[in-house]
Design a protein that fits this description.
With 117 residues, the protein is mostly beta strands. 0% of the residues lie in helices and 66% in strands. The chain has no helices and six strands. It has a six-stranded antiparallel barrel with strand order 1-2-3-6-5-4. The radius of gyration is 16 Å and the shape is globular.
Length: 117
Amino acid sequence: MVVMLPSFCRSTVTVLRARKVQTRPGAIEHDWADPTVLSITRCAVLPVSTGESSGEARVGVNVTAALYAPPGSDIEIGDRVRTVSGETYQVVGAPQRRESPTGAVSHVRCDLARYVG
């Protein structure tokens, strides 16, 4: 049986994963200067919400989206996802691996967020 997401899942996303570096004994930090780069094909990034956020000095916009990727996709908490249009989102929470009873629509779903402003 061929497992495929719906036909609208045609995009390729780039996953950026920070390298973990030990800064001192027992302390690991994420280094975004030279991240590991992975490509995932047959994805869809769909808008979820957008809203204004205001602080003391500026107003910005919070944008959220949902990533749908094929089963087994290598994506983790804290990764960043760059879309075909060049927008970069942060993976928020744990990727959700969803198995369908038939396997026909099994997928990985991730909540994404970015701040503009």
